[in-house]
Model the fold of this input.
Amino acid sequence: MSAPASPSVVLHATGVGKRFAGSVALDGVELCLRAGEIHALMGQNGAGKSTLIKLLTGVISADSGQVSLDGRLVAPTTPVQAQALGISTVYQEVNLCPNLSVAENIFAGRYPRRFGFIDWRAVRRGSRDVLAAVGLDINVDRPLATYSVAIQQMVAIARAIGVSARVLILDEPTSSLDEGEVQELFKVMRRLREQGLAIMFVTHFLDQVYAVSDRITVLRNGRRVGEYLADELPQPALVSAMVGREVALAEGRDSEHRPAANAPVVLSAHGLGRRGKLHATDIQVRRGEVLGLAGLLGSGRTELARLLFGLDRSGEGRLDIQGEAADLHHPADAVAQGLALCPEERKTEGIIAELSVRENVVLALQTRMGWRRTLSRTQQEALATKLVKALGVKTASIETLAGQLSGGNQQKVVLARWLATEPRLLILDEPTRGIDIAAKQDIMAEVVRLAGQGMAVLFISAEIEEVLRLCDRIAVLRERRKVGELPGGCSEQEILALIAGDAGEVA
Amino acid sequence: MVPVSTSFATQPWLRRFVAQPLFWPLLTLALLLLGNGVFNPGFLALHWRDGHLYGNLIDIGNRAAPLILVSLGMTLVIAVRGLDISVGAVLALTATVAAWTLTQVQAAHAGSNLLPLAWAIVAALTVAALCGLWNGLLVVKVGMQPIVATLILMVAGRGVAQLISGGQIITVYYAPYGFLANGFLLGLPFPLYVVATVFVGLQWLIRHSALGLFTSAIGHNPIAAKVAGVRAGAIILATYLFCGLSAGMAGVLVSANVDSADANNAGQLFELDAILAVSIGGSLLSGGRFSLAGSLIGALILQTMTSTIYAVGLPPQLNLVVKAVLVFVVMVLQSADFRSQVRAWLPWVRKGEQT
Done:
């Protein structure tokens, strides 16, 4: 082990193990967080990151191993206890109350009292103090919802470190932030590092790991692969440590598989738009073609997908599917026309966590068949088993509740649901966000395979690399309108230029 | 090797059995009945007299029939994240409509035929269906909160019923009507057949169509269900329609039982009993997970309690207090927090957990 003793160890976990219903989630894991360091915890979905975080923060308790904080053994059994010990956590989704003020959010549950009443002056003063620690100077009386997600995230951090924190755990803090906001967050993280906090940082974005981390611990299948200094671990080595096999990162589509230019048009939109959501947009997808949709968050990508799928009514323009005018009132109409949509918000709009994998997989096909004609239990099981195997979904059985799977596997289940309907056009809205590299690779390989079989695919992603690798054509959106279309082989700069567009000229 | 005796909590078949959703409701019902049997040995006896089967068990089933019907309707409404607090009023309204229609048709067509009965049932069920449709439209099309939407009919239903009855109790002098509630068919009371038909029909529909899957999908995650193409509006509307119909059937049974209709008092607090039966039966009040059989058992538990209080000779006023205690116990048992707390108290259960 190459643990230099120079920075003082704050939190040290050794031999930590945890089993869930027969499967091993963590096995003899060691983790060492040091004061004044940012420590990245890396691993694929299901590698045990979430379990480890939950153990450290007292959400669940370990079966074996021990955790010491400042040399003393600790075993928090609730998040409140963990926080009192100085282990604070900020989760992926900001879990504050948007309708309360910033100050109320920071002190919720621990208001300072005076004569039995809440001392609001102390609340405001204290809030400004902890916000200053993260370098934020905002009006603490305004409702949290009036601030951007990035600010909300920082308020969550301020709340977390407010109570004499020694360790700060950031679980995927950047997944809903844009590039500028990520930089802001990093600034805060560096500032807190200067103050001597031990920070654990969990993310799926490799670039971000290298931008802020000093040290990296990699988990794979519940075991620790190793602890490395960030400077000494090149990116490909990190990836292969996480995945356990060499991945060909640049696997794209073969040019010979690209569809013929005269392939029949599956869907075409003319001047399709909706007031306040999307300006009139033209778009066309052909059989066997992967059309990319690039653009920043809020550029209208998701809005377009929702219009095409009947989730929102279009106010203007026309939509043709297979050359015939289509009027989609409800997603059911789109499903009947052979459309499919894996939505951006996997947890709230995709998966139904309380239903089994089998029920999730058959749902869309069953809605297309109507309520009277049903798939028999045997047919359902055969279908679910086939798709689970084909997509490599990691699940104990097809009767496991979908909510118990990891993010990447949930996404595969949503994809399986739509593949069961054998759609003409598959719309994928950010299918790879928040999921691990291997699952990303699996999903992208699946897209290539499906397009090869003649399915039309609309691929929406914020990651330009992915779009470039997969797509035959790329439509670029900016400020709720389509600003151009590029051929598949174009360069990243061309796309970026279109995305930036006017903004660059004005500045 | 001789198997070493194991603590019973670790035996898998038993744990699976305990984990069955219907285990706790069934256990409650069985304990109630057995308790009665111990204190009153005649309680569980059934005897055959004049070609009819008599006994407390039959009686409980018979008396519970209206509540079972309404609970089945309520189960489906709650499963899709709804609530129908108008069922008591709809019950009173349909009871009144049935009795009123009966007397009107009887006055027009003197003679002892079945025409008045047919008219009464058709009129009552039509009104019930319209009530359900009204509730459903307010929730689905207008987008009202279910509790507010059904509150309207809860208040107005009884009012309309009193307008029809002129504020009087309508008394029926017509033998076939009483048969619906008090008659026997093949040795068993007629209401049991009504309940059995509705229950079996619903179970068949849930099993042999995709409605069960759609219902739980809507209840668990309405947005994801919509994205998957489930037309929730039609299904939610149908559940309110059926809930109205079930209250209508209950209304006919209730008024047939006493050969009269009391717009004021028929079905008082029925909505709360129905909701209670649904929750005792193990359905989630937040929607999604539901059990028709559980609600049926829940309704039987409530009726058994009422019968017990009468049988033991306690003052009937006690009924409400006992119900309150039961609600408390059931809710506490259903709470996952409480159960894990109990597990922490019982070392032998905890040992079983880890193996």
User: Anything to note?
Assistant: Residues 232-258 of chain B form the longest helix (27 residues).
